[in-house]
Each structure stands twice: as C-alpha cells, then as structure tokens.
Write a structure and sequence with these properties.
five-stranded mixed beta sheet, 29% helix, single chain, alpha/beta, six-stranded mixed beta sheet
C-alpha cells in the first residue's frame, strides 16, 4: 500500500512516569539551537494509537499501520471535540494529516507493531467537524528556558537540550502565548542565566520590549546524573515574573541516559498544564510595574524648569481654549501645506488639522486656540491674511482686501498761503 503524500515522522514519547523506563527516541538533526525550528503549527494531536499490522514486507506493513492510525485518530478526535465518532476516506485524511508521531515501534520482516500519534490540520479539521477552533490566549509571555547541569546555569549562552525541547514543543493548543527565541544574535546577551536573578523592572521592561512580550516565564530544570549514560533525574520548577513567583515544581526520572529528550518533553507538557491552570485561576497576572513607563530625563528637566520659572498671571482671554472652523482657499497642494504651517506657527494655536480637503476650492481646518476668536483674527491679520469672520468660523486668504495698517504719520506739505511761508526746512544758524 502506497501513501500519496509523505508523512513527517517525529520521534517523541509522551508516556513517562516517575521512575519509569522510556524508550530511546531519535534526536532532531543538527547540533545547534538554530537547527531546531520553533514548532508554531496549529495542529490537533491525537496520541497513544496502538496498531498491529501485517504485510508482504516491512514497508507495506508500516504504511498500512499509518493508514489505520489516521482512521483511528480521526475517530478519536471527533469524539473529543463533538462527542460522537466520524469517518472519512483515506484520500480526505491524507489532506488533513500533517504528521505522524512515532512514540514506539517494532518493525519485523512482515509485521509492524507501534504506538503512534497523528497530527491533524487545525483549521481544516475544525471546518470538517463544525467546531470553533478559537483559543483564548494570555498576553505574550517571554519564555526563559534555564537549565542547570553540572552546577552551571545556562539559557542561550551555549546549546542546551532544554532550549531545543521548548522549540519543538507544539504550543498552538495552549492558552499561553509563549514568545520563544532561537538563541541567535543578541539573545544570549539579553536573556541569560544572570538575567533571571534580576528584579529591576527597568531592565526587564527593556528586554520584554525588544521581543514584544508583556511578562516573563522562567522554566527551570536541574539535571542530575549518577554516571554517564545512566539514570537522569530532572527537577523541574516553573515561575512567573521578575520576582520568580513559583507556579509548580516536580521531579521526573528515566533509567536510560539516551532518553533525555523524552524526560524534557514530558516535563514541558506538565509545566504548560500548570501555566494554563494558573492563567485560568487568575494567578498569572501581568506585573503592573512592567507596564509603567518612568518619565524620561528630558521630561523631568522640563518639569523642573517650569516649576522654577515664575508663572505668568493668565488673562481672562487666554484662560479659555477656543475651538473653531477656519476656511482657507487652497488652489494647490502647496498652498494647503503653507496654510497649515502658517496656522500652526501662530502663538497660542494648539492644533490645526485639515478636516475637508478641496484643491482648487476652499478647504476646512479645525483649530484649537488659547484665546478668543477675535484674538485669533487679529493675529492672522497681523501676518498679512485677509479674514472674514462669522459665528465660530473664520475664512482666510492671502491678498485681497488690504490689511489695516498703522495710521499715517503727519507730513509737511507746502500750501500756498496769504501769510508768511512756514519754515519747512532747517535754516543754518547765523544767517
């Protein structure tokens, strides 16, 4: 039996108990954190599907087992979401399945025995079943995967199995909006083991703003080994916020050192469940101090200067702010820009925004002015504008009617008179 499309085989085990023995799982390719992509898929996962299939050869039996796992997985997913079973054709299931998770398998010459998990496309599966796929998420939470091994704490300073495990964790079904990092670039400088011990909100706020997060979650694991390749004990603790408020703590153990990925994956699942319960109970609230922005040094200096300067006694005219409409002739876009700039440049004008644009006609601006309408008219006329005034409205334009000027100074003119001629010029003395 041939499959029409390849499947993504991910070696992950999800059954682990304290003191239990886990199967050896295949590790992700690559040696660095950058080689493990962050799993941001939104797939539904159905795990623990047992299959036992025979075939003419090993490959046929294996692919047949995957086919049966798809059918069983879809029926289990339908019962979980709608309360009743469902069945689809193999071709339809091929378009819905995004991956096969191999939890445990035994391959013989003509037989395939395994426990598998199936991943279904979240959007298409929800449409097929007629259910809502919306998930209420928390505010963005920066995840800090802190690992202690050999007495040394590491986050992104060096490659760790704990960071890789968090990157491959499928968090689409969780109500926690994790902000997960790849550990490249400045990540190792901004988010490190020393940063988790800081309590200052200012620096945490700078780090969170860098990654678009609102708060921080510190997921810590301490790995203890009896001897190389031997049993591993993982002590897990989940905390929240700069003060490291505890959320949960527990311990897991595997007897085989090669099963460390299984140990960490199971620890992540339990941590995620604890974080979701804390969010539902209201214990995972964002620290209000992280959302508070302290005043800048420039603002503090300006405030101090204003306090030292003597406060002028406001006049009755300047004590009120007037909002009025200004109509201005705008034959071109340049004239509109110049009119706005001129209006905003007037002393006392708080804002001047164009609310109606009419190039080649009359545009309308909304102006807020510290003073009366008459004072604004006088200020405009003093700057060469021709102003027409109405109740709450001024219409202005350049040129047109002459602007009133200062009264003319007296001039001496020669006028014929019958009497003596007045002195219009200075006469040198002594003549």
């Amino acid at each position: 039996m041939q499959l029409r499309r390849p499947f993504l085989a991910i070696a992950i085990a999800s059954t682990l108990a304290l003191g239990g023995v886990a199967a050896v799982m295949a590790q992700a390719p690559g040696n660095g954190i950058s080689a493990v992509p962050i799993d941001a898929s939104g797939s539904f996962e159905v795990s623990g599907i047992a299959v036992d299939v025979s075939g003419k050869d090993a490959d046929t039996a294996r692919l047949g087992g995957w086919r049966i796992a798809q059918r069983k997985g879809w029926d289990m997913l339908a019962k979980r979401l709608t309360g009743k079973g469902s069945s689809l054709s193999d071709s339809t299931l091929d378009s819905l399945v995004t991956g096969i998770v191999v939890e445990r398998e035994q391959i013989g010459p003509t037989r395939y025995i395994a426990k598998l998990g199936v991943l279904f496309d979240r959007g298409r599966a929800g449409q097929m079943l007629g259910v809502s796929i919306a998930v209420t998420h928390s505010p963005p939470m920066l995840l800090v995967p802190l690992q202690f091994s050999g007495g040394t704490g590491q986050v992104y300073e060096r490659e760790t199995a704990w960071a890789r495990a968090w990157n491959r964790f499928r968090a689409a079904g969780s109500s926690i909006d994790y902000v997960r990092l790849r550990g490249t670039g400045p990540d190792s400088l901004l988010v490190n083991a020393g940063q988790t011990l800081r309590r200052g909100r200012n620096w945490w706020r700078t780090v969170l703003d860098q990654y678009g997060a609102s708060d921080v979650l510190v997921a810590e694991v301490q790995l203890r080994r009896d001897y190389p390749g031997g049993p591993i004990v993982g002590i897990f603790s989940a905390s929240h916020g700069p003060d490291r408020r505890p959320v949960t703590s527990f311990a897991l153990r595997v007897d085989n050192g090669d099963a460390i990925d299984t140990l960490l994956d199971t620890g992540i699942q339990r941590m995620d469940e604890a974080y979701q319960k804390a969010l539902a109970s209201g214990a995972l609230r964002t620290d209000p101090l992280l959302a508070t922005r302290p005043p800048s040094a420039q603002a503090v200096e300006e405030t101090a200067t204003e306090e030292e300067a003597p406060m002028p006694t406001p006049s009755a005219e300047a004590a009120t702010t007037t909002s009025l409409t200004v109509q201005v002739e705008t034959p071109t876009a340049a004239s509109l820009t110049a009119s706005e700039a001129a209006m905003r440049g007037l002393p006392g004008v708080r804002s001047a925004n164009t609310t109606s644009l009419a190039l080649g006609g009359i545009s309308v601006m909304h102006v807020s002015y510290d003073g009366s309408q008459a004072a604004l008219r006088s200020a405009l006329e003093a700057r060469g504008w021709s102003v027409q005034e109405g109740p709450g409205v001024l219409r202005i334009r350049r040129g047109g009617a002459a602007t009133p000027s200062a009264p003319p100074s007296p001039q001496v003119t020669a006028t014929p008179r019958a009497g003596p001629t007045p002195r219009a010029t200075a006469t040198p003395r002594g003549q």
